[in-house]
Amino acid sequence: MTFIAIEINNRAVSRDVTPRMHLADFVRDEARQTGTHLGCEHGVCGSCILLVDGQPIRSCITFAVACDGKKVTTIEGYDGDAIMDLLRPAFSRHHGLQCGYCTPGMLVSARDIVLRFPNADEDLVRVELAGNLCRCTGYMGIVNAVLDVLAQCRDDAVPEVSKLRAASPQLFRNETVVAARAVAFQTFKATDIGKAAVVMETQTAADDREATQIKGGASIQGSFKVPYPADAVWKFMADLPAVAGCLPGAELSEHIGDRIKGRVAIKFGPMSASFNGAARLDRNEQARSAVLKGAGQDSISKSRANGNVSYRVVEIDANSTKVEVDLLYSLQGPLAQFSRSGLVKDFVGRLIQEFGKNVTLRMNPNRSLDLPLRPAQLNAFSLGMSVIWSRIKRFFGRSN
Q1: What is the DSSP letter of 63?
Q2: Per mean pLDDT, which of 172-186, 188-202, 282-296 is the most reliable?
Q3: Do both 118 and 219 map to the same domain?
């Protein structure tokens, strides 16, 4: 048992809990805040979404012990909240709820949209709501309710809402790019893999004309060290087939100059995806930095992804190099709920480390050229267990 103290709706709740207890069970069973609903219990449906230190999270896949000392807000904790005071009647006015089971999580996500994207249009609202599932309404009423509240708050018409936005660290600086990309996602209708590649290549070309930063997406940073000179590492990173061979789960189907087409397959817990897509590499020789910009569609869930992988080669000394990686991506569709999952971010961090190990192996000048290296394989179980174990150690305050 572990003793934790969490502030739930401005009330301190302290208990001895098992390390495996989810936050959803804690707020329902220990704090008696039963407005938080459990649906899939896999982090997919969004019914259990609540705020932890102001950030929306899925409480069915968040351990209670990870929230020790944090502030939690459930659907019962929005009395006097300017945005929620507008959303509740708007959901009723536009018939945005029927059975009501998904509504608590839907309202929390809707509030997050109003807070972060003051000028969001219907396309962006749908992208942001993609991680909340409703089996009753058909979503039209929900979308219209959010758009209604956004319209009410235009041009600082509701000062209380403007104050919340100004105080929110989640507010993005430029949502024009977000809206443009949301529209681009909407035009992605092809389900045939061959057609999808053409559409995604067009999407990638459009990306080249826009800013390289994707606003409203999830960001993951990482780095790895390679025991070789920076010039050699930089040269290796220009070899796209070799680099793809180092990325677990990646396969190239076409390579022409700085453009590639291929597939990336991943599996982690309830999440399984196989993204077919196209990408283009832009390199800055002087800065030893590059950006791989691409888009893809999951052949399993039909979710769509858009992302930039930026990396920079930094010399440590004459015989060692550090590669800094910054992944910025956005998802639309059933897999969108994983965009903010800390567990998935940890998983991607582990993938970066695996990628670094494979780069070291492939650059080894002493390896036998008679035995060509096979593409790196993704051991989802091993990676998953390493992520879970590292999280458990952090829960108990261990650094190693």
Answers
A1: B
A2: 282-296
A3: no
